């Protein structure tokens, strides 16, 4: 049976702050620059979810795209759309590290423990999060999750294939 790929495109808006609790405030500012703004910043993300599988000879489809749309809505978009990834999404939410709190150069830093993610909400980690949300929902004996791509801007994107 022929193998095919089907991709669903969705969009969502979310805010976040690029910040690693493993780094000092100064290191975070140097690494993430304006994206380390303690008040966050936002993106209009474009999400692409690709399934790989046999093209069903009866339906002509790898998978029912309407069902894929529903799964993405329930397991991803409802969790991230118009949210602050660092505050509202459990996967990224965390506490400020002792290193952050003890940094004497904390001007503009993270004094509110809710503002420091335990996992930096980079576009790469956002792809991993989406994969983890969808993998069990879409893998069947006929098709499986093949790729998650997220475009953060027209110039920046990341891809995760479960590796």
Automatic annotation (TrEMBL):
It comes from Zancudomyces culisetae (Gut fungus). GO terms for cellular component: mitochondrion. The lineage of its organism: Eukaryota, Fungi, Fungi incertae sedis, Zoopagomycota, Kickxellomycotina. This is 6-pyruvoyl tetrahydrobiopterin synthase. One of its GO terms (molecular function) is metal ion binding. It holds the Pfam family PTPS. Pathway: Cofactor biosynthesis; tetrahydrobiopterin biosynthesis; tetrahydrobiopterin from 7,8-dihydroneopterin triphosphate: step 1/3. GO terms for biological process: tetrahydrobiopterin biosynthetic process. Its cofactor is Zn(2+). PANTHER family: 6-PYRUVOYL TETRAHYDROBIOPTERIN SYNTHASE, PYRUVOYL TETRAHYDROBIOPTERIN SYNTHASE. Belongs to the PTPS family. Its EC number is 4.2.3.12. Keywords: Lyase, Metal-binding, Tetrahydrobiopterin biosynthesis, Zinc. The keyword Lyase applies. Residues 97-116 are annotated as: Disordered. Coiled coil: none annotated.
